[in-house]
């Protein structure tokens, strides 16, 4: 269902203009017609009264001489199609209110008492009875108008003339007027409507253009000059300038962000290389010292040689550990994850919790095997729970919730230990960002690599008393499975 | 403007015709013939042509004098302002002391005609005048045999009179207008010259079609052409010859055809004896 408020201004403004023009035209025409109708009616009554007065004069002689046929011929001429088109019927009545003669002799037969000839005739008869004076007067009964005129000769009343107008006379004149007024109105509308439509479109055009340009923001920012508007001082001009300003600021901000991102990346690389250099430099220093000591003292001391070798070996192992930790193998072959795998991790980590005197709450709601590599998911879980156990104080709680959602598998690991300061959150998943307790700080980095490698998402929320790591892993991703291979 | 035209028309209707208009002299040697509505006297173009025909035959100018009633023509003739007149048998019978019978028209083979009682076409019941008690009745002219005398006579035979018998009666002073009055149902019945009604039925069938002939009278002498005292014997003879010979030439036969007449014939006063009898019966002495 299309609502009017949803229609584009491109149509809304012209439509409103059209409605306005139509209403104006209709009201104007109607009021003019109403006035014309009143004038027409008044003219008709005046004309009819004057005409009746003259006609009644010509009837004096025939009535005085009792020349019925002459009187009838006068009435007939007055009602004939060429005779003025004033009356549909004329009836003469004598002073005793009996019909003298009528142009409608079937309805008003000669000498019949007027009041016996129907409702209207009775009403007219009572009017004539009650009326005084020599002026004609009109009376409207039903849809007909009657003009009653006395016929007097030398102060003696010979009778009355009753003119009957059917409303069709007015109606036909008025219909003609109405038709011409309507035609003129339609003609004027024909001229005005395209103009109002054109102006409406013109008014809507800048709005539509503005809306188009603003609508593109988000996906892209329109380039300079894409927004075209009239440089006016009205509201559209103001909005145009404001939007242009907004676009400028957006473009500036975008540039700044790009720069920041670039320097951030550089900084991250710097921190990474620094971390690697440091991790490798430490054992290298020890090893070089050991080699120096061995050269100086003891080619002949087999014990020293053995110690030196052992030292070198530990140093090299440490370097290999570091390097291998950096090379996260996200695509290691694995079997599909089963609830049993999660339970293994639980059993594995229980002693750690006991050592730390922390409570470990375990809540796994996996129903069955799911298509995710068990090894990697286990490693992620172990890393997150170990970190959490490390963060809690003695007697603290670590909770682990594993389940399935519509989007895939979810894992949430909560602890109520030391929280992560906000300033550290942005760098949390970078390598060698330890918490300063002596670990090389690759755990979260590895976790992050695995999760993103599986197409998932990891997030962290931390505040005093509650730190939550949440992992979402989508199912059905093309992961190489043992069972599949 | 329509209204003004209508008013002019009305004034004309009100004052024309019946008012005693000054008689227009048009030269002493013109033969003046009075015309009455015993025939369709509203055919102005036809009358002009016939007048020219007669003038040519006579070798003298001819003038047709038309008036709204028979009485006016009779008066003009009495005042010796008309040489001839086409009158109804009734005024002829009344004035035959000083009127001479010129010719009698022959209609459908005989110098006779009838009076018709007509009623509106939707009145299918009425068959005679005496059934129209308390109705409105239209007569043509008080001096018309067919349009007044005969129905009057019928009523007097029934021991009544138009004033007592009818609810209302009026004169239209023309047979054609009697037909109109009945056709428009202003009157419930009317007395009309049968010859006029038959002729109208040929030319104005839409008018006569709205009426029905309810009764026909016995035949009477056809309305004659009469001569007044002012017509010299020579003019009388000449005029008689011309009229009697009219059916013999093409133009004359054409006029007769238009008048719906066969020819003109010589007539005798005996042709109008029935009218005289009726006149006596209703108590109007022969003046």
Oligomeric form: heterodimer
CATH class group of the largest domain in chain B: Alpha Beta
CATH superfamily membership of the largest domain in chain B, which one?
A: Periplasmic binding protein-like II
Q: Helical element count of chain B?
A: 12
Tell me the span between the first and last alpha carbons of chain B: 51 Å
What would you give as the CATH superfamily of one domain in chain A? PAS domain
Shape of chain A: rod-shaped
Percent helix range of chain A: 40-55%
Which regions of chain B contain 5 or more consecutive residues with pLDDT less than 50? Answer: 1-27
Largest sheet of chain B: 6 strands, mixed
Instruction: Compute the number of strand runs of chain A.
Output: 12
Q: Which blocks of ≥5 consecutive residues of chain A have pLDDT under 50?
A: none
Biggest interface between chains = A-B, 29 and 26 residues
Number of domains of chain B: 2
Short characterization:
The complex is a heterodimer of chains A (485) and B (287). Chain A has 485 residues and is an alpha+beta fold.
Structure characterization notes:
The complex is a heterodimer of chains A (485) and B (287). Chain A has 485 residues and is α+β, with helices and mostly antiparallel strands. Among the domains of chain A are: 4-174, PAS domain (Beta-Lactamase, 2-Layer Sandwich), CATH 3.30.450; 336-474, Histidine kinase-like ATPase, C-terminal domain (Heat Shock Protein 90), CATH 3.30.565. Helix content of chain A is 54%, strand content 16%. Chain A contains 9 helices and 12 strands. Chain A has helices at 9-64, 68-79, 119-130, 167-216, 235-297, 302-326, 339-355, 374-391, 443-453, and strands at residues 89-93, 99-102, 137-141, 144-153, 156-166, 336-337, 359-364, 370-373, 397-404, 408-415, 457-463, 466-474. In chain A, strand 4 and strand 5 form a beta hairpin. In chain A, helix 5 (235-297) packs antiparallel against helix 6, helix 7 packs parallel to helix 8 (374-391) and helix 8 (374-391) packs antiparallel against helix 9 (443-453). Chain A is rod-shaped, with a radius of gyration of 54 Å. The model of chain A has no long low-confidence stretch (mean pLDDT 83). Chain B is an alpha/beta fold. Chain B folds into 2 domains: 28-111 and 221-281, D-Maltodextrin-Binding Protein, domain 2; 115-217, D-Maltodextrin-Binding Protein, domain 2 (3-Layer(aba) Sandwich), CATH 3.40.190.10. Chain B is 40% helix and 19% strand. Chain B has 12 helices and 13 strands. Chain B has helices at residues 2-15, 44-58, 70-78, 89-95, 145-157, 162-165, 175-183, 194-203, 205-208, 233-245, 250-258, 273-281, and strands at residues 31-35, 62-66, 84-86, 100-106, 112-113, 115-120, 136-139, 168-171, 189-193, 211-216, 220-221, 225-227, 263-265. In chain B, the strands form 3 sheets. Chain B has a 6-stranded mixed sheet with strand order 2-1-3-12-4-13, sandwiched between helices. In chain B, strands 8-7-9-6-10 form a 5-stranded mixed sheet. A two-stranded antiparallel sheet of chain B has the order 5-11.
């Amino acid at each position: 269902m299309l609502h009017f408020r949803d229609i584009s201004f491109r149509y809304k403004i012209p439509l409103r203009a059209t409605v306005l023009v139509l209403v104006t035209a209709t009201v104007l025409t109607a009021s003019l017609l109403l006035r014309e109708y009143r004038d027409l009616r008044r003219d008709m009554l005046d004309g009819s009264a004057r005409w009746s007065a003259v006609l009644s004069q010509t009837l004096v002689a025939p009535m005085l001489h009792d020349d019925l046929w002459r009187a009838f011929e006068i009435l007939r001429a007055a009602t004939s199609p060429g005779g003025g088109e004033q009356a549909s019927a004329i009836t003469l009545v004598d002073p005793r209110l009996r019909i003298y003669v009528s142009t409608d002799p079937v309805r008003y037969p000669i000498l019949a008492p007027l009041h016996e000839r129907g409702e209207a005739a009775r009403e007219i008869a009572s009017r004539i009875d009650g009326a005084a004076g020599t002026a004609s007067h009109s009376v409207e009964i039903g849809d007909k108008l009657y003009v009653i005129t006395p016929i007097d000769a030398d102060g003696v009343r010979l009778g009355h003339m009753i003119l009957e107008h059917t409303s069709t006379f007015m109606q036909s004149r008025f219909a003609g007027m109405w038709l011409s007024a309507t035609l003129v109105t339609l003609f004027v509308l024909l001229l005005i409507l395209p103009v109002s439509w054109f102006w409406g479109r013109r008014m809507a055009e800048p709005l539509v253009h503005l809306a188009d340009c603003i609508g593109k923001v988000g996906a892209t920012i329109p380039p300079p000059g894409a927004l075209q508007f009239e440089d006016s001082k009205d509201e559209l001009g103001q909005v145009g300038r404001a939007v242009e300003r907004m676009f400028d600021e957006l473009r500036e901000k975008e540039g700044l962000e790009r720069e920041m991102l670039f320097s951030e990346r550089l900084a991250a690389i710097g921190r990474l290389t620094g971390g690697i250099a440091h991790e490798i430099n430490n054992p290298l220093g020890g090893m070089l010292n050991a080699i120096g000591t061995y050269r100086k003292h003891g080619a002949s001391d087999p014990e020293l040689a053995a110690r030196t070798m052992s030292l070198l070996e530990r140093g090299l192992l440490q370097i290999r550990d570091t390097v291998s930790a950096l090379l996260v193998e996200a695509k290691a072959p694995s079997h599909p994850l089963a609830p049993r795998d999660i339970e293994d991790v639980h059993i594995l980590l229980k002693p750690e919790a006991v050592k730390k005197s922390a409570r470990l709450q375990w809540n796994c709601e996996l129903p069955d095997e799911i298509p995710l590599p068990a090894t990697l998911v286990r490693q992620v879980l172990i890393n997150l729970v170990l970190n959490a156990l490390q963060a809690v104080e003695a007697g603290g709680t670590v909770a682990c919730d594993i389940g399935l959602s519509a989007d895939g598998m979810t894992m949430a690991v909560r602890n109520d230990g030391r929280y992560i300061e906000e300033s550290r959150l942005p760098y949390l998943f970078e390598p060698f960002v330890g918490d300063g307790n002596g670990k090389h700080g690759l755990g979260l980095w590895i976790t992050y690599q695995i999760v993103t490698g599986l197409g998932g998402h990891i997030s962290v929320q931390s505040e005093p008393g509650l730190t939550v790591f949440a992992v979402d892993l989508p199912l059905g991703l093309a992961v190489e499975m043992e069972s599949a291979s | 403007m329509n209204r003004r035209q209508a008013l002019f028309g009305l004034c004309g209707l009100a004052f024309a015709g019946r008012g005693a208009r000054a008689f227009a002299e048009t030269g002493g040697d013109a033969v003046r013939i009075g015309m009455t509505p015993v025939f369709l006297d509203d055919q102005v173009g036809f009358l002009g042509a016939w007048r020219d025909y007669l003038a040519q035959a006579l070798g003298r100018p001819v003038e047709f004098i038309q008036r709204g009633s028979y009485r006016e023509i009779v008066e003009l003739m009495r005042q010796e302002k008309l040489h001839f007149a086409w009158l109804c048998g009734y005024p002829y019978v009344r004035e035959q002391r000083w009127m001479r019978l010129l010719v009698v028209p022959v209609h459908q083979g005989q110098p006779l005609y009838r009076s018709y009682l007509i009623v509106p076409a939707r009145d299918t019941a009425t068959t005679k005048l005496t059934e129209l008690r308390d109705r409105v009745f239209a007569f043509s002219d008080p001096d018309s045999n067919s349009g007044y005398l005969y129905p009057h006579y019928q009523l007097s035979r029934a021991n009544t009179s138009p004033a007592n018998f009818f609810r209302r009666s009026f004169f239209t002073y023309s047979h054609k207008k009697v037909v109109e009055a009945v056709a428009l149902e202003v009157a419930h019945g009317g007395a009309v010259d049968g010859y006029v009604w038959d002729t109208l039925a040929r030319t104005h069938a839409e008018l006569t079609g709205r009426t029905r002939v309810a009764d026909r009278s016995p035949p009477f002498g056809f309305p004659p052409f009469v001569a007044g005292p002012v017509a010299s014997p020579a003019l009388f003879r000449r005029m008689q010859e011309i009229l009697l010979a009219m059916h013999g030439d093409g133009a004359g036969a054409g006029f007769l055809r238009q008048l719906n007449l066969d020819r003109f014939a010589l007539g005798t006063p005996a042709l109008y004896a029935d009218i005289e009898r009726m006149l006596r019966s209703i108590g109007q002495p022969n003046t």
